[in-house]
Amino acid sequence: EITFDDTPINIGSCMNKESGVFTVTIPGLYSFSFSGQSTNTVSHVYVQKNGNVPLVIGDHNTTPENNISFTWFMDLSTGDKINLKVESGGTYLANDNHWLVFTGQLLMST
User: What count of other Cβ atoms lies within 10 Å of the Cβ of residue 94?
Assistant: First the structure.
C-alpha cells in the first residue's frame, strides 16, 4: 500500500495518511489523481476500490526518475474506500525534492 507523510489539505477528513485510504463520506462523482517519480524499472500502481482493482496505472519507461501521472473519475457511494498499491516493478521516489501526490475531490454529490 502507498501511505503518506502529510495531508496538507484534508477537507472532510476523508484521507487517512497512515493507511493511505481515502474513505468517501458524501456519495457522488469524484476526481482523483496520482503523480510521482518512479525508479528505472517498469512498474504498475493499482487503484483499489473496496479491495477490487478497477484501474491500473502503468509505467513502462525504464529511464531513471521517470515522471508518472494519471487522473481519473469515479462514481462513489458513502463508505467506499480508495487506495493505491505498487503491484509490480520498482519503487517511487518520495522525499523533500520528490513528491508523491494522491488527490481526491468531490465534483458533484448525488
Answer: 16
Q: Report the C-alpha gap between 55 and 14 in whole angstroms.
A: 20
Query: Nearest-CA neighbor of 110 among 75, 74, 62?
Result: 75
pLDDT by 10s per residue, the chain, length 110: 888 888 888 988 999 999 999 999 999 999 999 988 777 677 788 999 999 999 998 877 777 777 888 999 999 999 999 999 987 666 665 666 667 889 999 999 99
Cβ distance 33 to 103 under 8 Å?
A: yes
Our CA dihedral for 61, 98, 104, 78, rounded to 10 degrees, sits at 90
In angstroms, rounded to a whole number, what is the distance separating the alpha carbons of residues 59 and 62?
8
State which H helix or E strand residue 60 sits in. Answer: none
3-class secondary-structure state, position 64: coil
The grid cell for 47 is: 487503484
| Residue with grid cell 507523510, as numbered in its chain | 5
* Model pTM score: 0.86
